[in-house]
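Reply to dn_fold:

You asked what the input looked like. This is it:
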Amino acid sequence: MSSGKEFIELLKNQREVELKIANALETTAQSTTNPVVKYLINALVLDSKKHAGILQAIIDLRFGWQALSDAEKKEMMKALERHVEAEKQMLADTDNLIKKIDDSLVKSGLQIIAEDEKKHHKILGALIETLSTKTNQVDRWQWMLKEYSFGC
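and this is what came back:
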């Protein structure tokens, strides 16, 4: 079963479950003052929201695809290019901090942030490249969803 109304409903239901979990976890996170517990629960919230987004993207790609207009592409590319510059600066700043810090906890946290920034840079580059091509965008978006969804 990979098509049809029943399939869409299963995906939509799963998306709703993810969003309910995220909302419940947000409430739980707000009830604690422990920063580690709050951070870890909020990380789970983000993952559940990411899962809901993946499911929505699958639904849209399979059952409601609409290509971006040239004007939307152009505007999106400008915004993403600005974000690439911000990500570059963030990565450079983070790398500089890593070199200066001896505290292993802080250094470890900054290294995780630096790795995420590198992933973000790669994703932004792929988005810009896809937006700039005239090839079959449905295939490209499907590839990007598979390639990058799980590494965000």
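The chain has a mean pLDDT of 90.
Hope that clears it up.
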